[in-house]
Sequence to fold (263 residues):
Amino acid sequence: MQKGKKIYEGKAKIIYATNDKDLVIQHFKDDATAFNNLKKAKIEGKGVLNNRISEHLLTSLKNCGIKNHLIKRLNMREQLIKKVEIIPIEFIVRNIATGSLSKRLGIQEGTKLDNPLLEYCLKNDDLSDPIISKEHIYAFNWSSESEIKEIDKLSLRVNDILSGMFKAINIKLVDFKLEYGKYWNKDKDRFELILADEISPDTCRLWDEKTEKKLDKDRFRKDLGNIIQGYQEVARRLGIMHEETNIKEVSFSRPTSIKFKKK
Ligand code: TMP
Fold:
C-alpha cells in the first residue's frame, strides 16, 4: 500500500490518498482543539493513543456486526480505512447529562438519563456545529429518512456494546460522538452506510465508575491537567497498554515511547 497526497486535514487528523482509490490513510495528530478551535494545544502522544484505542473499539464493534471503515492499523499513528463520503452530521449519544446538554437546557450535570438520548449536530465549523432536528436534516437533504432510521438503530447498538465494554473496566460511558459515511461497495454495486471517523477519549466522555474522575478530553477542555494520563488509563484498562510512558504534555522535544501489548 503506497501513501499518496494529503487530501484533507482536520483539527486532529489528516487523510492521505493511497494507490487504491477506495482506500485512504487516516493519520492521528497530537493537536487538540476545543470550543471550535478557540483553544489549541499539542499533547504529545495523544495521536498514538487515540489511534490504538480507536482501532481496539472499532475492531470490537466489527466483531459485534457493526460495519465500519477500519481495515487495519498501519503503525503508531496511521490506519488504513475505507474511503467514505462523510454524512455532514455529528451523531451524539448521551447516557448521563453533562456538557452542552446541561448548559443548553439547564439539566443538572450528572443526571442519569432514563433512556439514551440521540442528538444531531451539523458539521460546520463556521457555525460552531449547531444542534439540528431530524426535520432540518430532511429539509436540507443532509441525509435521508431511511439513513437516519438505520443510523439511530446503529448508534444505540454501538452504545449498548461500548457501555458494556467500559462497564467491565469500571468506566461510565457518559456520552460520545459518532460519524457515518457512505462507501461504494463495488461488489454489490451500491453505497453502503458504515461507521467512520474515530472513537476515542477525544470523542467520548469517560468517567471512572467510582470516583467519576474524567478520563477524556474534558481534562483539556476544562484545564484539569494530566490529559495523557487519562487517555493512558483508558488504554491500560482496555488491556491494550501495559506500561507507564514518559510522554510529556505540550512538548515536542521528547521522544514518545508507548508500549502496546502484542496482539
Ligand atoms: P457536548 O456535550 O460538548 O455537545 O459533547 C457531546 C459529546 O460529543 C462528547 O462526548 C464530546 C463529543 N464531541 C466531539 O467528539 N466533537 C465535538 O466537536 C464536540 C462538540 C463534542
About this structure: Residues 15 and 26 are 5 Å apart (CA to CA). Residues 92, 99-101, 129, 175-177, 203-205 surround thymidine-5'-phosphate (CB under 6 Å). The chain has two domains: 3-84+226-260, 86-208. The helical segments are 46-63, 99-105, 134-139, 145-167, 218-221, 227-238.
